[in-house]
What does this fold into?
Amino acid sequence: MAARVVSGNLDGNGLRIGLVVSRFNDFISERLLAGALDCLKRHGVAEKDLLIARVPGALEIPVAARRMALSGLHDAVVCIGCVIRGETSHYEQVCAETARGVAAVALEAGLPVTFGVLTTENLHQAIERAGAKGGNKGWDAALAAIEMVTLFRSLK
It folds into this structure.
């Protein structure tokens, strides 16, 4: 007897996607947003089915994502931002609480809430992950959102 395997696909037609974008380090987060929007468009998500919420910083991402996720208006929420290590321990706290908050939202809402928040040691690493050699993590988070929505629909 073979196991039944279910997976998502990359067809974004008809999907409604919310995006939460941090303004802090916006020279990076705007590149991540551009990557996410390009991905969504190329995979069939209509512009009219997108809502972008801008928040001050990474710590505000989870609460805005929660509001979107629980609204019933979105099939998935893509979280985008950038935290670059500074000279204080604040970096560890911001990274940990942002990641924990986004994960908690996904579990509470029961829908895909993807993490396109860079947590880097320096500006060079951030640039590499926002469209240079390391790809664009905004694109990756958007693609994961599409795949997860279609997977969830297969699991009903």
